[in-house]
Design goal:
By secondary structure, the chain is mainly alpha-helical. The chain has one domain. The chain is built from 5 helices and no strands. Helix 1 packs antiparallel against helix 5 and helix 2 packs parallel to helix 5. It is elongated, with a radius of gyration of 19 Å. The chain starts with a helix and ends in a 15-residue tail after the last helix.
Length: about 170
């Protein structure tokens, strides 16, 4: 099961990386169009779609690598059972909130599909297509938080520490 979950987190990270490359290409096309006097309609809208996709698809991978921002003012001062209880409570709240986010993201994509909702910009893209990336990213984030919670309850959670957290300025 661990290998499957890690593969899922890594796969969405790769999709996020592809979205970033697509974002770069979209922006470069827009810049080149201004310089060489041609226009490809929708490049600005697609740049926004790719930026959102990159952000949402990278959420779970970022969480599992310890790169999310954590406020450790309280937890760093606690030890033993108190610290564990705080971690379980925080992860429980995170599971709840990410679950709501996943449900509403899925619901938004589904409603956009059933209502044939399209972008108001000149690209006229069906909105459920870019919303799939948001829905997928939030569902995988929910899975990652459940994974973290289960590991914390079982006592096998290894918190990844970011190297950035060690650099206090």
């Amino acid at each position: 099961m661990r290998k499957a979950l890690d593969w899922l987190y890594d796969s969405t990270a790769w999709l996020a990386a592809l979205a970033m490359v697509a974002l770069l290409i979209s922006v470069l096309l827009s810049v080149a169009g201004r310089q060489f006097h041609f226009h490809i309609s929708g490049t600005d809208a697609y740049a926004g779609y790719f930026m959102a996709a990159a952000g949402f698809l990278a959420l779970a991978h970022t969480l599992k690598r310890g790169e999310h921002i954590r406020v450790t003012l309280l937890s760093s001062r606690l030890t033993g059972g108190y610290k564990r209880a705080l971690e379980i409570w925080a992860l429980g709240v995170a599971v709840f909130l990410s679950g709501l986010f996943a449900v509403y993201s899925l619901r938004l994509a589904w409603q956009s599909h059933t209502m044939n909702d399209i972008s108001t910009s000149n690209d006229a893209t069906p909105l459920w297509i870019p919303q799939i990336a948001m829905a997928l990213g939030t569902v995988v984030l929910l899975i990652a938080f459940v994974d973290e919670l289960v590991q914390e309850i079982r006592g096998s959670r290894q918190q990844a520490e970011s190297a950035e957290a060690l650099h206090n300025e």
